[in-house]
C-alpha cells in the first residue's frame, strides 16, 4: 500500500534513531545534566527566594522552565521516558539479535587478535589435545567441519551475554516500581501533641502520642559547645484495621508498620498553652488550647491578635536572649503582635509572665506541650524497586567481570607429522580488553606443546 | 600511648609515607629504576596500612564510627584509592602511575585533617548500621574513580605528547622523550583499558552505595529517594559513568573521547563528594 510506506519509514527511522547507542548516551547525558541542575538550584522554594538569589531574568527563566521543581517537571520525566524508550529499543534491535553468533569459519589473519602455533601430531591428535587444553581452562569446545576444514570453537562465559539484558530489564523494573508509587502510594506528615491522636486520612488508622522524649548532649568541640541530639522516642498507641489498640515505640531509623503504611519519627517541637485575661477574669473560650508555631489568638473587639512564634527552651540569664542549649531549663516563648493585619513586632517572654495587649487584655504563655512529628508513607512499589536494584547489581557484575569470548581454532596439516594451529579471538567488548589474556593463553599453548 | 595520640601518629606516618612514596614513584616514572619501584610500593603499602590502622584506632578509642565526618571519610577515600591501586598495580604492573596517585591521595588526606572536629557522637539519623555499610561503599567507589582518573590523565598526557612530538620526529626517528618515559608507558589502548577496569570496580560499588543509601533513607526518612542534593549528585555521577560504559562499547568513542568523558565524570564525583557537602546543605550535609 502506498500510504503505508512513509509511515513504515517513519517507524523504522524512529526505531533506528532511538536504538542508536550514541543517541542513548546523549539522552543519558541530558538526564544527568537535568539532575545536576536540580542540585545546584535549590528546589521547592517560594518564587520570591529565586528573585533574591539570582538576577531577575535568570530567576524568571528558572520559574518558567520549572527548574525550581525540576524533578517533577515535564523535562525531567520526558528525559527519563526517552532514556527508557531508547534503552528498550536498543535492547530489542541491537542487544537481543546479537546474542549468540553462529559458529562460522573466519579468516584467522583478518582478526586482530590471532596467532599461530605449530604442534607435533596428526590432525586428530592435535584437535583432541586442543580440546583438552581449553576444556581444562574452563572453555567449552565444539568441533565442526566447515567446507572441508576442521574447526574447533572454544567459548567462555557465553551465558554472560545476558548481562546487558539483565541490566536493562533491571532498570525497567525499577521504573515500574516507581510508577506503582505514583499510581497507588501516598505519603504525608502529621504532628501529634502529647495525649492527642491523629488519623491517617487515606487509611483511617489512628495514632495517639502517649509520651515523647528526647536526649541531647552538650559536647565540647574545637569550635565550641555543640548540642548533639542523641535520641528521639515516641511512645504511641495505634489502632489499625483490626480495631485493637496496640502500644508501640517509634524512633529515628526505626519506623513502625501500621497495615502496610510505615510511620517514621521525623521531628519534634513545642506547642504552647496560653491563658487569656480580660481585666481580672480568665477568658475560658480563648485559654488552654495548645497553639502550634504560627497559630494566633484574635483578641475580641480590638483588631489585635497575638501569634505564638516559637518556643525557647532556655533563656540565657545574662543576655536575656535565647540560649543555644535546646534542653529545657528556663523556658520562654517568642510572641508576635499583629494590629489590623500589620505585624507590630516580636518579643521573648519567660513562661508564666503576662503580655499586656491594652484595653485590659493580657495573655500569659502558661506551659509548653511537646509534640512529635511523624511522616507516613505507603509505597507498594518498594519490593519491585528493591528487586530491580538487586538485579541491576547482578547485571553489572556479570557485564564487567565475565567477558564472553570465543576462540576460533583451525588445525591444518603442515606435513612431517606436524600441524599448524591458527587461533583467533573475538569478544563482546572488542579485542583490546582480551589482548593480554589471549597472549597468555597462546604462551601456555606453546608451552604445553613443548612438554 | 594515649589512643588519640596514636590516631595522630598514624595519620602523620601515612601522610609521610605517601609524600615520600609519591616523590620516589614519580622519579621511578622517569627513570624506571627497579629499586625505586620497590621502595615506592613499600611506602604505598605502609601508608595505606597505617591509614586503616588510624581509622581502627579512632573507632576503638571513641566507639564512634569514624566515617561520618569529612575527616574520617576523606581518610577512607584516600586509603581505598591507594588500596585499589595497589591491588591493580600488582595485577597489571602499574607502579609507574603510583606517584601521581599517591600525591593526589596525600593531598586529599591532608585536606581531610583540616576537618578534624574532635570526637562527636552521631545525630540520631546517622546512628544506623547502614552507616557502616553505605559510607564505606560509596567512598570506596570514589577511590576507584580516582584511580580511573589518574589513568585517564596519563592517557591524555601520552595522547597529546605523541601528537605534539610526532611531527617533530617523523616516521622511524626517535627522541629522548619517546625512548624515555613516553616509551615505557603502556600503549594508549592499554591505558584506555586500565581506565575501563577501574571504572568497572567503581561503578558497581557506586551502584551498591546508592542502593544501600536508598535502603537507609527508607528506614530513616521514610522514602528511599527524596531528591536530597547528595543522593541526586550521586545519581548524576552514576549516569555519567553509565554513559562512559556505553560509549566504551563504541570503537569510535574509545580512547580520546572516552577519557575526556571519564575526566568529566570524575569532576562530578568531586562535586558530589566535596562540593555538595561544603556548599550545598541538605539532609546529608556533614555540617548539620
Ligand atoms: C539510553 C539508554 C540506553 C541504551 C540506548 C542502551 C544500550 C545499550 C547497548 C546497545 C548495549 C550493548 C553494547 C555493546 O555491547 O555493543 C548496552 C550495554 C550495557 N548497558 Fe545499556 N543502554 C541504555 C541504558 C542503560 C542503563 C541506564 C544502564 C544501567 C546501568 C545500562 C547498563 C548497561 C550495561 C552494564 C551494559 C554492558 C556494558 C559493557 O559491557 O561494558 N544501560 N546498552
Structure report:
The complex is a heterodimer of chains A (451) and B (288). In chain A, a hairpin with a 2-residue loop joins strand 17 and strand 18. Chain A contains 9 helices and 20 strands. Chain A has 451 residues and is of the alpha+beta class. Among the domains of chain A are: 4-93; 108-157 and 403-445, Kinase associated domain 1, KA1 (TATA-Binding Protein); 274-368, no CATH class. In chain A, 32% of the residues lie in helices and 38% in strands. In chain A, helix 1 packs across helix 5 (74-95), helix 5 runs antiparallel to helix 7 (163-184) and helix 7 (163-184) packs antiparallel against helix 8. Chain B is mainly α. Chain B is built from 9 helices and no strands. The model of chain B is unreliable at 282-288 (pLDDT under 50). The chains are: A alpha+beta (451), B mainly alpha (288). Bound molecules: protoporphyrin IX containing FE.
H/E series of chain A, N to C?
HHHHHEHEEHEEEEEEEEEEEEEEEHEEH
User: What is the distance, rounded to the nearest whole angstrom, between the alpha carbons of the first and last residues of chain B?
Assistant: 33 Å
Would you tell me the structural class of the helices and strands of chain A? alpha+beta
Rg calculated over all Cα atoms of chain A: 37 Å
Amount of beta strand of chain B: under 5%
Q: Count of DSSP helices of chain B?
A: 9
Biggest interface: chains and residue counts? A-B, 57 and 53 residues
Which geometry of chain B do the CA atoms define?
flat
Q: What fraction, in percent, of the residue positions of chain A are helical?
A: 25-40%
**Average pLDDT metric of chain B:** 85
Distance between the termini of chain A: 70 Å
Instruction: State mean pLDDT of chain A (0 to 100 scale).
Output: 90
Any ligands, ions or cofactors bound here, and which?
protoporphyrin IX containing FE
Largest sheet of chain A: 7 strands, antiparallel
Helical content band of chain B: over 70%
Tally of extended strands of chain A?
20
Going by helix content, strand content and strand pairing, the class of chain B is mainly alpha
User: Could you spell the SSE succession of chain B in H and E letters?
Assistant: HHHHHHHHH
Number of helices of chain A: 9
Low-pLDDT parts of chain B are 282-288
Low-confidence stretches of chain A: none
Amino acid at each position: 500500500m502506498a500510504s503505508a510506506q512513509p509511515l513504515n519509514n517513519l517507524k523504522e527511522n524512529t526505531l533506528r534513531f532511538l536504538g542508536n547507542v550514541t543517541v542513548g548516551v546523549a539522552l543519558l547525558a541530558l538526564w544527568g545534566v537535568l539532575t545536576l541542575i536540580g542540585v545546584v538550584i535549590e528546589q521547592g522554594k517560594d518564587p520570591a527566594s529565586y528573585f533574591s538569589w539570582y538576577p531577575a531574568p535568570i530567576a524568571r527563566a528558572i520559574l518558567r522552565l520549572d527548574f525550581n521543581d525540576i524533578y517533577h517537571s515535564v523535562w525531567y520525566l520526558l528525559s527519563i521516558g526517552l532514556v527508557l524508550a531508547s534503552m528498550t529499543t536498543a535492547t530489542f534491535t541491537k542487544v537481543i539479535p546479537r546474542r549468540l553468533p553462529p559458529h562460522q569459519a573466519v579468516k584467522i589473519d583478518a582478526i586482530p587478535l590471532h596467532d599461530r602455533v605449530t604442534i607435533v601430531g596428526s590432525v586428530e591428535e592435535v584437535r583432541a589435545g586442543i580440546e583438552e587444553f581449553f576444556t581444562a581452562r574452563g572453555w567449552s569446545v565444539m568441533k565442526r567441519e566447515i567446507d572441508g576444514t576442521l574447526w574447533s570453537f572454544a567459548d567462555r562465559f557465553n551465558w554472560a551475554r545476558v548481562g546487558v539484558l539483565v541490566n536493562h530489564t533491571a532498570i525497567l523494573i525499577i521504573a515500574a516500581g516507581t510508577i506503582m508509587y505514583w499510581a497507588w502510594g501516598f505519603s504525608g506528615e502529621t504532628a501529634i501533641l502529647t495525649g492527642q491522636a491523629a488519623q491517617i486520612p487515606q487509611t483511617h488508622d489512628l495514632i495517639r502520642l502517649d509520651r515523647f522524649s528526647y536526649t541531647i548532649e552538650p559536647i565540647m568541640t574545637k569550635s565550641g559547645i555543640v548540642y548533639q541530639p542523641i535520641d528521639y522516642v515516641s511512645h504511641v498507641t495505634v489502632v489499625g484495621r483490626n480495631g485493637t489498640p496496640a502500644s508501640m515505640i517509634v524512633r529515628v531509623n526505626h519506623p513502625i508498620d501500621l497495615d502496610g503504611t510505615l510511620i517514621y519519627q521525623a521531628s519534634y517541637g513545642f506547642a504552647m498553652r496560653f491563658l487569656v485575661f480580660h481585666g481580672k477574669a480568665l477568658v475560658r473560650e480563648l485559654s488552654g488550647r495548645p497553639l502550634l508555631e504560627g497559630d494566633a489568638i484574635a483578641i475580641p473587639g480590638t483588631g489585635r491578635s497575638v501569634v505564638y512564634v516559637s518556643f525557647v527552651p532556655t533563656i540565657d540569664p545574662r543576655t536575656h536572649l535565647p540560649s543555644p542549649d535546646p534542653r529545657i531549663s528556663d523556658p520562654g516563648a517568642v510572641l508576635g503582635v499583629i494590629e489590623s493585619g500589620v505585624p507590630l513586632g516580636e518579643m521573648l517572654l519567660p513562661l508564666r509572665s503576662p503580655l499586656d495587649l491594652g484595653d485590659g487584655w493580657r495573655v500569659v504563655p502558661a506551659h509548653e506541650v511537646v509534640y512529635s512529628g511523624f511522616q507516613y508513607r505507603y509505597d507498594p512499589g518498594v519490593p519491585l524497586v528493591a528487586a530491580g536494584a538487586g538485579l541491576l547489581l547482578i547485571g553489572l557484575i556479570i557485564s564487567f567481570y565475565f567477558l564472553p569470548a570465543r576462540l576460533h581454532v583451525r588445525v591444518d596439516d603442515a606435513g612431517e607429522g606436524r600441524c599448524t594451529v591458527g587461533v583467533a579471538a573475538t569478544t563482546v567488548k572488542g579485542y583490546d580488553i582480551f589482548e593480554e589474556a589471549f597472549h597468555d593463553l597462546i604462551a601456555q599453548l606453546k608451552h604445553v606443546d613443548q612438554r | 600511648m594515649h589512643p588519640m595520640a596514636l590516631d595522630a601518629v598514624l595519620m602523620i606516618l601515612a601522610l609521610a609515607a605517601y609524600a615520600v612514596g609519591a616523590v620516589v614513584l614519580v622519579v621511578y616514572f622517569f627513570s624506571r629504576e627497579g629499586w625505586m619501584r620497590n621502595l615506592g610500593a613499600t611506602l604505598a603499602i605502609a601508608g595505606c596500612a597505617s591509614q586503616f590502622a588510624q581509622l581502627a584506632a579512632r573507632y576503638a578509642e571513641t566507639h564512634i564510627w569514624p566515617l561520618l565526618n569529612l575527616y574520617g571519610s576523606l581518610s577512607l577515600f584516600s586509603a581505598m584509592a591507594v588500596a585499589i591501586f595497589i591491588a591493580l598495580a600488582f595485577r597489571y604492573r602499574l607502579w609507574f602511575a603510583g606517584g601521581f596517585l599517591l600525591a593526589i591521595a596525600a593531598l586529599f588526606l591532608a585536606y581531610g585533617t583540616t576537618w578534624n572536629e574532635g570526637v562527636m557522637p552521631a545525630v540520631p539519623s546517622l546512628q544506623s548500621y547502614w552507616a557502616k555499610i553505605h559510607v564505606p561503599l560509596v567512598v570506596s567507589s570514589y577511590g576507584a574513580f580516582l584511580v580511573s582518573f589518574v589513568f585517564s590523565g596519563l592517557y591524555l598526557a601520552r595522547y597529546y605528547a605523541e601528537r605534539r612530538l610526532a611531527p617533530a620526529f617523523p616516521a622511524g626517528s626517535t627522541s629522548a622523550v619517546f625512548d624515555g618515559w613516553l616509551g615505557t608507558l603502556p600503549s594508549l589502548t592499554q591505558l584506555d583499558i586500565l581506565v575501563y577496569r577501574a571504572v568497572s570496580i567503581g561503578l558497581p560499588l557506586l551502584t551498591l552505595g546508592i542502593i544501600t543509601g536508598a535502603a537507609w533513607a527508607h528506614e530513616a526518612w521514610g522514602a528511599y529517594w527524596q531528591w536530597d542534593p547528595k543522593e541526586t549528585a550521586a545519581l548524576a555521577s552514576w549516569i555519567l559513568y553509565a554513559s562512559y560504559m556505553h560509549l566504551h562499547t563504541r570503537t569510535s568513542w574509545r580512547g580520546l573521547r572516552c577519557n575526556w568523558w571519564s575526566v568529566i565524570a570524575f569532576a562530578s564525583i568531586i562535586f558530589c563528594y566535596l562540593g555538595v557537602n561544603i556548599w550545598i546543605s541538605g539532609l546529608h550535609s556533614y555540617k548539620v
